[in-house]
Specification:
The protein has 222 residues and is an alpha/beta fold. It is globular and about 50 Å long. The longest helix is centred in the last third of the chain and has 18 residues. The chain has a single domain, classed as Rossmann fold. The protein has eight helices and ten strands. Strands 1, 2, 3, 5 and 6 form a five-stranded antiparallel β-sheet that branches. The chain has a five-stranded parallel β-sheet with strand order 7-8-9-4-10, with helices on both faces. The structure holds adenosine-5'-triphosphate. Adenosine-5'-triphosphate (ATP) binds next to β2 and α1. This is ABC transporter ATP-binding protein. Keywords: ATP-binding, Nucleotide-binding.
Length: 222
């Protein structure tokens, strides 16, 4: 299988006035296209930081990263933006919904950002995502009128609506009950099966982690 992610981090450092924190020392990750990887590890070990690096949100680290066969340090800003919009789907903890927009418009937001460079979008893709995760009844509501679990599902739908090649999901099921958790995982794995979408899920839920092709345990720097 083709390697879609080839990442080698020497060090990621967060610096503030009086302190410095170093995480992910000498961490290497190679992921094949279509692979399902779970990332687990204790709180603060660097799981979300790692997803930000994989998703090209954070490029401030020492290391080398080849994504879709291209060295990411030579990418243009416009290419970076296009990849983040179309090739990578983010379901991140802090992906806030816009309160002035309906849930439907929030989910369709990536299409707006894509502008003229957008892939062909089919209405049935939207319908199938919305049906699969059971949020049809809340489409016309605004985020402030929704429960935490409903909002989490809308964030998920927005992350996958462009049918990206890679989905980066940070605790996508954390605020959900058993039924909705299962809906999200089923949709994630269905996309993996139908479109060979590469999935990377950060989770504290070992039952979900073990349903991926492999589980990576992140450990604190020694
Ligand atoms: N922007 C930042 N500035 C400074 N320190 C940060 C920043 N972001 C994260 N950190 C620190 O880096 C470490 C790793 O954070 P990260 O969010 O990646 O951990 P995590 O493994 O995802 O944790 P959790 O399971 O609690 O979500 C933590 O100690 C955190 O406080």
């Amino acid at each position: 299988m083709t390697k879609i992610i080839d990442l080698s981090i020497k060090e990621k450092t967060y610096k503030s006035k009086n302190s410095q924190l170093s995480i992910l020392n000498n961490f290497n990750l190679a992921v094949a296209a279509g692979e399902k990887t779970a990332i687990v590890g204790e709180s603060g070990v660097g799981k979300s930081s790692l997803l930000n690096i994989i998703g090209l949100i954070d490029r401030n680290y020492v290391g080398a990263y080849t994504l879709f066969g291209s060295k990411t340090n030579s990418l243009h800003t416009s290419e970076l933006a296009q990849w983040r919009n179309q090739k990578i789907g983010f379901v991140l903890q802090e992906s806030a919904l816009i309160n002035s927009l309906t849930i439907e418009d929030n989910i369709k937001l990536p299409l707006l950002y894509a502008g003229s460079g957008k892939k062909e979008f089919k209405a049935e893709d939207f319908e199938s995502v919305v049906d699969a995760i059971g949020i049809k009844p809340i489409l016309k509501k605004k985020p402030l009128e929704c429960s935490g679990g409903e909002k989490a599902r809308a964030v998920f739908a927005r992350g996958v609506i462009m049918k990206p090649q890679i989905i980066l999901a940070d605790e996508p099921t954390a605020s959900l009950d058993v039924e909705n958790k299962e809906r999200i995982v089923t949709l994630l794995f269905k996309m993996n099966k139908e479109f060979s979408t590469t999935i990377i899920t950060v989770t504290h839920d070992l039952e979900i982690a073990n349903r991926h092709d492999r589980v990576i345990h992140l450990e604190r720097n020694k």
